[in-house]
């Protein structure tokens, strides 16, 4: 059986292990610590530094394919792995666009994918002229490294922009602050020989830059808009040469969809697929990077809702299982084996059914109770 | 999070790991070899002998609950663990009835569960008188240790019985050879504080004493018979004090159901629940032995069929994934990471849908192709 090496030991690698167990594929994880979420449940989990090329090369030895649980491996190291003959999926040429937001915007603009107005900015006057042209506030983004609301600043004036830029040393870009109706996401998979599949479009509910809920499918989405969003995502996967999963986060606006962010790995917006689709995103990623035929993305219920469990102040979530499981024997609980820290994504819940409001209430209740936000 | 120790590193422990990962429960496995099916996918998998009390005591240290992947731990060792203060589920008093077929028949007869005629036999004349009373052929069974058709002999005459008994040194029992319509199985879970749940009754298709297919629910089963079978299984779980899963294999006969065998662990007849029920048998077993509220056993599709993949002559199944997955993107493939040996259970496939004949064809095709029985 093939050996798949995943760089990074977070919950995405942890959940990939569930899929690897079913397929009989051997998963190896490069962990940063033996206590990493995935390292706890993978027998072959060497500890190493994903920023160290020697560590990466040692890790890749004996792997049939190397893939990623996050975007933080330096692009030049991925190129070096490829030059050393390692099969890396997604490859460096594609992954660059999930690592560098400015490169992503350039490329998407080039291929005609719908994007908000944007530009690279190096001094406050760049932001001022961009804001004066496209309107205030302006969204400033770190070109590399940001996620879950980090590395993003919304600035309302030239002064605020200057204040951010005096503090931040990394390259920045400016984007128009999109007046969106809601945020949606499209998950596609593409294999090296070019097969592609697309999951139903979902709505992602965000609070303070962190995804709190995913509604699958996105409620009341116009079928033409859904088809358009799926076409955009599949097209990006093809044109960028993505292998494995591609999650495309989008803004739904009155004028159509705009691409927000790209991720080339299993994604929070796809956790609902574990129970809610015939093929989970984790199995799909394995199938794609192994160049196996892709699995059916068909949903298993009319409505699926995933709610993230964010860490609260109680050190253990486990005592709260009792009430959640007694309250709703059909809700699914996922816990990532991570230490609880306030606001940290430590697990998620999934509910499935025919009535959206009810399904959403169930997932929400379980997540809120586990997080300690509610007590009944 | 609690630590669950499972004695035995086979595929049942392996699939339990998938459920443990979701719940955040830490699974520890006592493997007989580092290459065991489960040892490959569990980071905490010490090697030891399940027949050695010191090994069992060392393994149990730090476990919140100890449970089993098979029935082969000596009953006296389980009692010794309990006396040492280890929480063992199922406990020795219940597990005895899954280990000792004669003790099981005595107890089931006592509580009024429907059984075929049976008796302990120690010499050929016992079999002769039993056969003359209940009819020939007679089924001889090893009281302990048999499974998958091993430890079972169908004898047509006093001479054949004498021949078996001259070869076999273990205690035997005789059972009437039941003229059954088909074989069915009922899977229930019971927690220490007494909650019970029951999965839909399934049909188990056997060839040469090995289960080849499970049809869930059992097609065209009279609802009254289904309810009766479920009542019998739940009643056995309660009266025997089972904690965790109980699989009750039954014969369906024109006069009603008869109990054939008991297993107190996840069971081959329940593999369909991984995708086919809201709570998989593996998650259910963990919830039951941890005394968590039990999960919903509701099916996720009108028809679910599981087909076992038996080892053929090809050393690797993996090259056959290509055709199976391309042929049917919705069929689920499970491979246990075991070396292929002819006739060995090395994996299973699951199909779900609305038309039984079609669902069964799909699961069957995938399993047969993976096994090398067919080539298109």
From TrEMBL, chains A, B:
Protein family according to the UniProt entry: Belongs to the PurK/PurT family.
Pathway stated in the Swiss-Prot or TrEMBL entry: Purine metabolism; IMP biosynthesis via de novo pathway; 5-amino-1-(5-phospho-D-ribosyl)imidazole-4-carboxylate from 5-amino-1-(5-phospho-D-ribosyl)imidazole (N5-CAIR route): step 1/2
Catalytic activity: 5-amino-1-(5-phospho-beta-D-ribosyl)imidazole + hydrogencarbonate + ATP = 5-carboxyamino-1-(5-phospho-D-ribosyl)imidazole + ADP + phosphate + 2 H(+)
One Pfam assignment: PurK_C
Gene label: purK
GO MF, one annotated term: phosphoribosylaminoimidazole carboxylase activity
Function: Catalyzes the ATP-dependent conversion of 5-aminoimidazole ribonucleotide (AIR) and HCO(3)(-) to N5-carboxyaminoimidazole ribonucleotide (N5-CAIR).
Any single biological process term in GO: 'de novo' IMP biosynthetic process
Domain ATP-grasp: 105-290
Entries under SUPFAM superfamilies matching the protein: Glutathione synthetase ATP-binding domain-like, PreATP-grasp domain, Rudiment single hybrid motif
Name of the protein: N5-carboxyaminoimidazole ribonucleotide synthase
Keywords: ATP-binding, Ligase, Nucleotide-binding, Purine biosynthesis
Keyword Cell inner membrane applies: no
Enzyme Commission number, as recorded: 6.3.4.18
